[in-house]
Amino acid sequence: QVFLVEKAGRRSLFLAGLMGMLISAVAMTVGLVLLSQFAWMSYVSMVAIFLFVIFFEVGPGPIPWFIVAELFSQGPRPAAIAVAGFCNWACNFIVGMCFQYIADLCGPYVFVIFAGLLLIFFLFAYFKVPETKGKSFEEIAAVFRRKKLSAKAMTELQDLRRSEEA
């Protein structure tokens, strides 16, 4: 896994994993919806489950731990990892406790919820998460500062245009 992360990059593996999980969730939904009409759809669902797990293990499983460790300097890093671990396990607990109730409520469409969340996570990661491969903490922080400054400049430009129109 470490060699793959170093070769392909954190962001690209994370995005590929999220997209693969999204496609797998859609395939699981299709398989469950059409199961009563086509018996072979059970195989589609099984393959989709295996692919979901594989894509999770390539991207969203390990990559956030790399990124969290690289986004924070040595001082706040332990606290950031503790918060990330808490969020991870809290979400796992919530999904584990609620899945059966949601499955009873949604029936074969239960994985549409996961697909929707995966789409949101993919879009967030695509637009907000930088590539951290081969970059120091200072370089990563500079990327965030540039994004913050460019957002501030855009806001100031919009304010200037509004004041000129008035």
How does this structure look, described?
The chain is 82% helix and 0% strand. By secondary structure, it is an all-alpha fold. Helix 2 (10-33) runs antiparallel to helix 4 (63-71). The longest helix has 30 residues, at 77-106. 17% of the residues are buried. The chain starts with a helix and ends with a helix.
Relevant terms:
2 domains, mainly alpha, Growth Hormone, Chain: A, transmembrane helix, 166 residues, MFS_dom, Sugar/inositol_transpt
Topology:
Blueprint (H helix, E strand, L loop, with lengths): L1 H7 L1 H24 L7 H18 L4 H9 L5 H30 L3 H19 L8 H29 L1
Helix pairs in contact: 2-3, 2-4, 2-6, 4-5
The CATH class of the largest domain is Mainly Alpha
Compute the gyration radius: what is it?
20 Å
SS content category: mainly alpha
Number of helices: 7
Q: List the domain count as a whole number.
A: 2
CATH architecture of the largest domain: Up-down Bundle
Query: On the 0-100 scale, what is the average pLDDT?
Result: 86
Please count the beta strands (DSSP E, at least 2 residues each).
Answer: 0
Largest β sheet strand count, sense and barrel closure = none
Q: Identify low-pLDDT runs.
A: none
Instruction: Give the strand content.
Output: under 5%
In CATH terms, the superfamily of the largest domain is MFS general substrate transporter like domains
